[in-house]
Write a structure and sequence with these properties.
182 residues; 3-methyladenine DNA Glycosylase, Chain A; 9 strands
Length: 182
């Protein structure tokens, strides 16, 4: 398994979001395959629509971890993108590969398809919280390429937003049972 170089993340956010499908996240002794992503650039649904202290990481870095809290209770894992523009890819769902017992314990569920089928669920299962915010990928969180070939990618508008609904920037592996339930 090869770690993705930081240059992978320096590219167009939409391209990175699509190409992250099938890659592996390794964190806290666990591994999971990315099966669903969403791209966020400088659009009205994105934190980067305006530069703020929270969104500055999307402007100032690529290949870093951006973690934020939504609804006052759920962490969301993002990877920053683009060298010259703000961007980040939200990791919406992953397929558990290694450390499944620990994930089940963290999530308090035995149903494997419910472990990581949403951004808050995967953060809880993998033990990802705000302490990871701002770190460079390749250390505590690694993104790896094991050569897995994604057969069919589907797209849709992003979930849980009210602006920029016309942008088909949600990507997911077709027929994968670990994709979030919409």
């Amino acid at each position: 398994m090869k770690p993705l170089p930081s240059s992978f993340f320096a590219r167009d956010t939409v391209m990175v979001a699509r190409e992250l499908l099938g890659k592996i996240i390794a964190v806290n002794g666990m591994k999971a395959r990315i099966v669903e992503t969403e791209a966020y650039g400088k659009d009205p649904a994105s934190h980067a629509f305006r530069k703020t202290p929270r969104s500055a990481i999307m402007y100032d870095t690529y290949g870093h971890v951006y973690v934020y809290l939504i609804y006052g209770m759920y962490q969301c894992l993002n990877f920053t993108t683009e060298k010259d523009s703000p961007g980040a890819v939200l990791i919406r769902a992953v397929e558990p590969l290694r450390g499944i017992s620990a994930m089940k314990k963290s999530r308090r569920t035995e149903t494997i398809t419910n472990l990581c089928s949403g951004p808050g669920k995967l953060c809880q299962a993998l033990g990802i919280d705000k302490k990871f915010n701002g770190i460079k990928l390749g250390g505590q969180i690694r993104v790896l390429d094991d050569g897995f070939a994604v057969q069919k990618v589907k797209t849709s508008s992003r979930i849980g937003i009210k602006d920029a609904l016309d942008l088909p920037w949600r990507f997911f592996i077709a027929d994968n049972e670990f994709v979030s339930r919409v």
